[in-house]
Each structure stands twice: as C-alpha cells, then as structure tokens.
Design a protein that fits this description.
Elements: H1 3-12, E1 29-33, E2 39-43, E3 49-52, E4 55-58, E5 70-72, E6 78-82, H2 86-92, H3 102-111, E7 119-123, H4 129-138, E8 143-148, H5 151-165, E9 172-176, H6 179-186, E10 192-197, H7 206-212, E11 213-223, H8 226-239, E12 246-248, E13 255-258, E14 261-264, E15 274-279, H9 301-305, H10 319-352
Parallel strand pairs: 7-8, 7-10, 8-9, 10-11
Antiparallel strand pairs: 1-2, 1-6, 3-4, 5-6, 11-15, 12-15, 13-14
Helix pairs in contact: 3-4, 5-10, 6-7
C-alpha cells in the first residue's frame, strides 16, 4: 500500500481507528509491563522519562517504535510496550466517579442490543467509561446523547472520550441537567432506540423514558443494590407500558495458568451492579402481568432509605479531586494536539524551504 492509499484509508476509517494502528506517537497512552507482570500506563511526551525505583525509561525510546516493542531502562529493566485495550484504558483513566466495569459494559452492549447507527441516550455519565463503549457500538453514523447533572463529571468524561478517540466523537452529544427534564425537552417522542440509565433512582424516569423510547426500544438499567432493583422492577410493572423486566448480574473469575498449576485465581471481579432490561410496548398496549406476583410489593420507609448514597456506601468526592481529574483527563488531549500542531508546523517549514 502506498502513502496515498494509506492516507485515503485513514480519512474513511471509523473515528479513532487510525490512532490504534502504526508506530507509537507522541501524546498517546502506552501500557508498560515489566518482567514481573506489573503494568503502568504513561503518556508519551518527548524529552521526558518514566521513573521508578529501578531507574528510568526515556519516552523517546518508544516514540516511533512499533507496538509490541521491548525497551530497556537505564539499568537494564525490560518493559513490554503496547497500546492499552479498552478494558485497560477505562480502569486507568482519570475518574471522578466509579466507572462501569468492562464486564458490565459488554453486557449492556450485547443485552441492550446496541447496534451501529442506533440512537441512544444515557444518564449518569460519571467518568465516561460506558460512553466510550456505547460510541464504539453506535459508530460514526449513530447517535449518543449523554446527560450528566454535574459539570465536573462532564468535563472528566469529555476528556477521557477525546483521549481514546483522538478528538471529539462525531456521534456524541453531552448535556447538563436532570435526565427526566432534559431528555423530553431535547429529543422527539419515539425517536430513541435505546435508553441506558446508571443512576440511584431510575424509577423516577419512567415517563421520560416512555416518551422518547420508540415502540420495541430497549431500556437497560444499571443499579447497585437489591432495593433499587426491586423498586425499579415494580415501578415498571405498575406503569404498564413496558414488557416484564429481566435482571441479572455478571461475575468474572480469572484462571492462573502456569505449567500444570492451572486453577482459579484467588481474587475475582464479583458483584459490581445489577443489570435490568425491559422493552417499550406500542402506545395503547398494556403489558402482560407475570403469572406469579409477589405477595408484597409496597415499600416501607426503611426500604426507601436504603438506596440513598450514604446507605449504599457511595463516597462523596471532593470538588478538589474532581477538578484535578478533569485537568488530568484534558491534559492528554492537549498534549497530543500540541504535538500534532508542532509536526504540522515543521512539515510546512520544510515545504517552504
């Protein structure tokens, strides 16, 4: 393939794909794995070094090298260099809130049937981990509208999304405000294919979801506690505009592989949250009641109090930490842009000469 063919491929490739190929470039994130399997992610910056208690590694040794290279520090420590996978990136990126784990994001994409070209809305953006996966699923010609109540979280999410995609994604829009108010004001009734909610009280959004979701559309909820799960399910049943909800959780257990010592790992990613999915029925249709109903569906006050942030163990995040995370998320994007501008300037000067 000649240079012109390569350039044409880059212009027609899905957004962000070009940044996943080729040699390492200044401004991008690289995952270093040492001889003991410990991993660290760095942002390549010309003229700087990665320092550890076992010497330092100059970033310039990596810039321009192919992915999968082996490099040595000044004291002979070897490192394997690869671009972080999506699962690695979301667990190491700057954050202001807990991220949706890759195992849950994968379930949301598959069980929510998020397809290329779909029109999706989400609420509870947090640090942008799920937004990144949703954008990959809908593609450049799809549509993702994310709603977030806090400006700080929106800034962190925007920085993380632009870092992994190399700039603003053409399918993404992010708005500030309460989901149940903003989504009906900004989206046409019946115009949305999928709704994904990651929030404390999704049952408060029943009318908003029923308004914007197209008949047959999927609504998937991510909640942390049994109480939230129960109340959301009962609210959906009582509403009558949706199918009988299904709920589950996923657990991932790794395995130790060394010769004949093949066994489960001592640690695993167990409960992180519950997922629940339901679908919008056609207007005027009432959902079928389950064959067996629970004998008690009312909630006492102590049940309602169980889903407050303090009760579910959610730690408050200081404004200082959020501002720092937002700066970290945006700094990588700015570093990469500065490097690209510098390279363009050098190229222009060479052509002028």
């Amino acid at each position: 393939m000649n240079h012109q063919d390569s350039a044409a491929e880059n212009t027609t490739a899905p957004h962000g794909a070009a940044a996943r190929r080729g040699p390492f470039r200044a401004g991008e994130r690289v995952q270093l794995t040492d001889e003991r399997g410990r991993m660290n992610t760095i942002t390549l910056t010309p003229g700087t070094a990665y320092h550890t208690h076992k010497g330092f590694l100059n970033h310039d040794l990596l810039i321009g090298q192919p992915e999968g290279s082996m490099v040595e520090s000044n004291v002979g420590q070897q490192y394997q260099a690869l671009r972080p996978l999506l699962s690695d990136f979301v667990l190491s990126m700057p954050r202001g809130a807990a991220v949706v784990y890759p195992k849950d994001a994968g379930q949301i994409i598959t069980m929510g049937d998020i397809y290329p070209g779909a029109r999706v809305v989400e609420a509870g953006v947090g640090s942008g981990a799920l937004s990144i996966s949703l954008l990959r699923a809908v593609g450049d010609n799809g549509y993702l509208h994310s709603f977030e109540r806090r400006q700080e979280f929106a800034d962190i999410a925007r920085g993380n999304v632009e870092t992994i995609y190399g700039g603003p994604h053409p399918a993404w829009k992010i708005s500030l405000g309460d989901f149940q108010d903003e989504v009906v004001a900004q989206e046409e009734p019946g115009s949305i294919d999928r709704v994904v909610l990651d929030m404390l009280a999704p049952w408060e959004c029943l009318d908003a979801v029923a308004t914007v979701l197209a008949p047959g559309g999927v609504w998937i909820n991510y909640v942390a506690t049994v109480t939230q799960l129960s109340r959301t399910a009962e609210a959906i049943r009582a509403d009558g505009r949706f199918t009988e909800p299904d709920a589950w959780e996923s657990m991932v257990r790794g395995w130790h592989l060394e010769g004949l010592a093949v066994r489960p790992d001592h640690r695993m990613v167990a409960h992180t949250g519950f997922l629940m999915v339901t679908r919008r029925l056609a207007d005027g249709v009432t959902g079928m009641s389950p064959k067996r109903r629970a004998s008690k569906t009312d909630f006492a006050q102590e049940d309602l109090d169980a889903w407050t942030p303090a009760a579910v163990g959610e730690r408050s995040v200081s404004d200082k930490k959020l501002r720092r995370a937002a700066r970290d998320a945006s700094s990588t994007v700015q570093t990469k842009r500065n490097q690209e501008q510098s390279e363009e300037t050098e190229t222009r000067h060479e052509l002028e000469q």
